[in-house]
Amino acid sequence: MIIGTRGSQLALAQTENVARLLKEQGVETSIKIIKTSGDRFTDRPLHAVSGGVGAFVRELDDVMLAGEIDIAVHSMKDMPTIRPPVLPTVAVLKRDTPFDILLTYDGSTLDELPDQAIIGTSSLRRAAQIRRYRPDLITQDLRGNIDTRLRKLKEGLYDGILLAKAGLERMGWELEGEILSPDFFCPSPNQGTVAVVTRAGTEAEAAVSRLDHTESRIVTEIERILISELGGGCTTPIGSYAELTPDRKEIHVRAEVLSLDGREDVRIDEFIPMRGGVEKARELGHRLVKMGGKRLAEEALLQISRDACDSGDSYDY
Q: How much is the pTM?
């Protein structure tokens, strides 16, 4: 079977892990690299590429629908909330660390960084959360693969950079940094999770389904439900995080929406029962909307569109 993936080091590491897991199940695979718009246009903020939503996903979907690949491997946080029914997420792999990590040039923590320190990130969510936590810091866009971002930090182009801790783990890189608390830096929905997609009704679907991790699927579904009514996807500062309590009877859920400048936010932080958790998550999602979450998401999307027009960019929003 042919597995399609982006060509970045991280994407290849994730795909090679899926290939290894399938081989353990007796399934032989080969890997095909697909270059996506999100990889080609590294001179632009990610939210300016194909409208931002699914920038790394759509083209793999197209290649799969054309029959050129049997399986696609994605960082689940990149996947749009609404997916084609013919391309099910057949397996959610066991989740890695879901939190953000701050790496700094001189080893400083977030609280120790001096005024006007420059923080690099490609995430509107992380940028808004930094502005909320420390308005004195300066956030600047940071694109490129993980090794490129680390190189820019070492060169002193940034005082610190924000990354997903899971990416470093999958690369096998043990770098010292500050893991940021979800109380102040709620992760992106499904951060730290790898999703495996196939066409429905195929041999690939049957093979990949054996890789599914039940607990990871439960919490990632809850995270998606929490923000499903907000719209905007990765083009807006939205966080959503769910984790099972040790007794597996409840799910601790956090979700928030921020303005781009971080000055305004709405958030929820509650425990919901495992039984009936989907319905309760929908209720909390509706509450986020009523609290003003949808308004913030729409205002952020509008501001992004205006900024692109003011700069002369002709991106399709």
A: 0.87
